[in-house]
């Protein structure tokens, strides 16, 4: 998979691309992630990428020209163009599964007070990572890329994400490590028993109990199902 991210703050992605699973996925060529500075596409002599909004009242608005040129330069036949915006569809695990099967994604990060409305015409999909407003789409694009890359076959062991929270509309079951007794809080005996069928049953029951208690909405509507 190839992911091209368009941003006016490329430096924000440094840690993301050079750490842990994402770093390894890039090194092992499961994914090719390229960060593109929108400024490089600006035809303005001062490399301007934003300007005042017509009608007043707002701060700086991202101009269409650099973003149109960038998308037209990078887009191929199989490309899905995604715009990061709090006005987009709320991102869910099911979408991460669907997007992990795509060949090429272009993620556009909006910034400042917004982006010119005409930029919307470039997007196949608009995504929001939640009902709150970030200073820009950069963190959202990292959240979305991270959640997709870990689902690409081979990036992590399949078992690790088969039991993820939200699969089958359930939260993940509880896990424990050493020590068996920490400050009086003990690991459930069944996990120490070595009895695989009982462990499986315990985990299924605990996942259901946890979901009923914390996120009953998941059991009512199936929208998170991966
Ligand atoms: N840009 C600003 N806020 C955002 C959000 N919640 N999701 C996606 N992009 C954003």
Strand content: 15-25%
How large is the radius of gyration? 21 Å
Q: What is the H level of CATH, i.e. the homologous superfamily of the largest domain?
A: SPOUT methyltransferase, trefoil knot domain
> Kindly state the mean pLDDT as a whole number?
94
What pattern of helices and strands is seen along the backbone?
EHHEEEHEHEEHHEEHH
Biggest sheet strand order reads: 2-1-6-5-7
Present the secondary structure layout.
Blueprint: E1 2-7, H1 14-17, H2 20-27, E2 32-37, E3 50-52, E4 60-62, H3 64-74, E5 79-90, H4 93-99, E6 104-109, E7 125-128, H5 138-149, H6 158-162, E8 181-182, E9 185-186, H7 196-214, H8 216-220
Parallel strand pairs: 1-2, 1-6, 5-6, 5-7
Antiparallel strand pairs: 3-4, 8-9
Bound molecules: adenine.
Residues 84-86, 110, 128-130, 132-134, 136-137, 140 line the site of adenine.
Q: How would you describe the overall organization of this protein?
A:
The chain is an alpha/beta fold and 226 residues long. The chain folds into 2 domains: 2-158, Alpha/beta knot; 163-221, Trp Operon Repressor, Chain A. Helix content is 31%, strand content 19%. The protein is built from 8 helices and 9 strands. The chain has helices at residues 14-17, 20-27, 64-74, 93-99, 138-149, 158-162, 196-214, 216-220, and strands at residues 2-7, 32-37, 50-52, 60-62, 79-90, 104-109, 125-128, 181-182, 185-186. It has a 5-stranded parallel β-sheet. A two-stranded antiparallel sheet has the order 3-4. The longest helix has 19 residues, at 196-214. The chain is elongated and about 70 Å long. The relative contact order is 0.15. The protein binds adenine (ADE). Adenine binds at residues 84-86, 110, 128-130, 132-134, 136-137, 140.
């Amino acid at each position: 998979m190839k992911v091209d991210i368009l941003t006016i703050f490329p430096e924000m992605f440094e840690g993301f691309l050079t750490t842990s699973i994402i770093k390894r996925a890039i090194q092992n060529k499961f994914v090719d992630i390229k960060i593109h500075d929108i400024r490089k596409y600006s035809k303005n002599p001062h490399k301007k990428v934003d300007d005042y909004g017509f009608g007043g009242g707002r701060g700086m608005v991202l101009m269409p020209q650099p973003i149109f040129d960038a998308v037209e330069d990078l887009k191929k036949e199989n490309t899905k163009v995604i715009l990061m915006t709090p006005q987009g569809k709320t991102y869910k695990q099911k979408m991460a599964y669907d997007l992990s099967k795509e060949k090429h994604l272009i993620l556009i990060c909006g910034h400042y007070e917004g982006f010119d409305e005409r930029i919307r015409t470039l997007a196949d999909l608009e995504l929001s990572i939640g009902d709150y407003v970030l200073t820009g789409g950069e963190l959202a694009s990292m959240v979305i890329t991270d959640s997709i890359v870990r689902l690409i076959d081979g990036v992590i062991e399949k078992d690790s994400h088969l039991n993820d929270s939200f699969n089958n509309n359930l939260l993940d079951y509880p896990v424990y490590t050493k020590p068996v007794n920490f400050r009086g809080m003990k690991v459930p005996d069944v996990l120490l028993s070595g009895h695989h069928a009982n462990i499986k049953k315990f985990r299924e029951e605990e996942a259901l109990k946890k979901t009923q208690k914390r996120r009953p909405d998941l059991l009512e509507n199936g929208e998170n199902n991966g």
